[in-house]
Amino acid sequence: MNASLNTSTTPNAVSRDSFLPRINLKHSPWGRDGLYPTVRMRRYRKSEAIRDLVAETEVRPDDLIYPIFVREDGKTHEIPSMPGQRYHSVETAVETVRELLDLGLRAFILFGIPREKDPEGRVAADPEGIVQRTVRALKEEYGDDIVVVTDVCLCQYTTHGHCGLVDEDTGKVLNDPTLEVLAEVALSHAEAGADIVAPSDMMDGRVKVIREALESEGFDDVLIMSYAAKYHSAFYGPFRDAADSAPEFGDRSTYQMDPRCFRQAIRELELDAEEGADILMIKPAMPYLDVVREARRRFDHPIAAYQVSGEYAMIKAAAEAGYVDYRTAVLESLTCIKRAGADLILTYFAPEVVRWLKS
């Protein structure tokens, strides 16, 4: 017997051509209740003009915040772990902001890299520190035409690389003693002219202490953008190299969030909102869009998401290898972050994106 089956002679076999003409679309379930063919979703995609007309999410220059690394030693070379990004001096930071402001980018976050470090990171609060001097220079040059955000943390300034004070005997990162130092740092940034201070340390209670310090010194109009749900993530690798902020011992899992936890993130967001945060941030962005979405649903605060150095490096590497189209991948990633609910996106792609949008 021939093992192959001839469907044309098999009883009850129905070919595609014989089946389709039998369908009466007027009496088919597909034709009722606004379904096919009454509704054809491809109509919305007929042309680029129509797609743009009905687009639900649009990335704009005003959605973006660009991170700038400023070095106290004045070196301005490319950052090896982050191709396309450079270290800045005060002067080159001012020049870069001028170029980007002309393109419509108006918000910047500063990360300082000091010459000297100490065990408690108190150099971070120096009124003549690299961040404080850069803030003054930017605000003197551009005033309220730009928004200057400052990262408030100790990891770049401590000799051990942790985000808080450390017990010398046990190696434990000390929560409450760290709060005073963080408040001093935030206050020094506000005194220099920062519009927004952004605590990224993940110490419990730091938003409340910083808010009280700002209020007590008359800086009631300075916003706090809290790194509210900051996860203990592998995607920070290139940044830690760039900022010289990797911990000398242990890791940050005792204060940054466990990637396995969602409900804890919501509690962190709620607590920071209650303590006085004006903007709530989730970091990283793409791996945690579920948290971004829930934050948008639950809170009326502006929601920020940080597209971190590892996300940046992955797209760069994939594009360089020819696996993805660079521009398309960048814009898709930012669109997805905004569609999930982020009002603000911190991204290293910001300069290129504003140029693309302008063109």
From TrEMBL:
<feature type="binding site">
    <location>
        <position position="155"/>
    </location>
    <ligand>
        <name>Zn(2+)</name>
    </ligand>
</feature>
<dbReference type="GO" id="GO:0004655">
    <property type="term" value="F:porphobilinogen synthase activity"/>
</dbReference>
<feature type="binding site">
    <location>
        <position position="153"/>
    </location>
    <ligand>
        <name>Zn(2+)</name>
    </ligand>
</feature>
<comment type="subunit">
    <text>Homooctamer.</text>
</comment>
<feature type="binding site">
    <location>
        <position position="348"/>
    </location>
    <ligand>
        <name>5-aminolevulinate 2</name>
    </ligand>
</feature>
<feature type="binding site">
    <location>
        <position position="252"/>
    </location>
    <ligand>
        <name>5-aminolevulinate 1</name>
    </ligand>
</feature>
<keyword id="KW-0460">Magnesium</keyword>
<keyword id="KW-0479">Metal-binding</keyword>
<dbReference type="InterPro" id="IPR001731">
    <property type="entry name" value="ALAD"/>
</dbReference>
<dbReference type="GO" id="GO:0008270">
    <property type="term" value="F:zinc ion binding"/>
</dbReference>
<feature type="binding site">
    <location>
        <position position="163"/>
    </location>
    <ligand>
        <name>Zn(2+)</name>
    </ligand>
</feature>
<feature type="active site" description="Schiff-base intermediate with substrate">
    <location>
        <position position="283"/>
    </location>
</feature>
<keyword id="KW-0627">Porphyrin biosynthesis</keyword>
<dbReference type="InterPro" id="IPR013785">
    <property type="entry name" value="Aldolase_TIM"/>
</dbReference>
<dbReference type="Pfam" id="PF00490">
    <property type="entry name" value="ALAD"/>
</dbReference>
<feature type="binding site">
    <location>
        <position position="309"/>
    </location>
    <ligand>
        <name>5-aminolevulinate 2</name>
    </ligand>
</feature>
<comment type="pathway">
    <text>Porphyrin-containing compound metabolism; protoporphyrin-IX biosynthesis; coproporphyrinogen-III from 5-aminolevulinate: step 1/4.</text>
</comment>
<keyword id="KW-0350">Heme biosynthesis</keyword>
<feature type="active site" description="Schiff-base intermediate with substrate">
    <location>
        <position position="230"/>
    </location>
</feature>
<protein>
    <recommendedName>
        <fullName>Delta-aminolevulinic acid dehydratase</fullName>
        <ecNumber>4.2.1.24</ecNumber>
    </recommendedName>
</protein>
<keyword id="KW-0456">Lyase</keyword>
<comment type="similarity">
    <text>Belongs to the ALAD family.</text>
</comment>
<dbReference type="GO" id="GO:0006782">
    <property type="term" value="P:protoporphyrinogen IX biosynthetic process"/>
</dbReference>
<dbReference type="GO" id="GO:0005829">
    <property type="term" value="C:cytosol"/>
</dbReference>
<feature type="binding site">
    <location>
        <position position="240"/>
    </location>
    <ligand>
        <name>5-aminolevulinate 1</name>
    </ligand>
</feature>
<keyword id="KW-0862">Zinc</keyword>
<dbReference type="InterPro" id="IPR030656">
    <property type="entry name" value="ALAD_AS"/>
</dbReference>
<feature type="binding site">
    <location>
        <position position="268"/>
    </location>
    <ligand>
        <name>Mg(2+)</name>
    </ligand>
</feature>
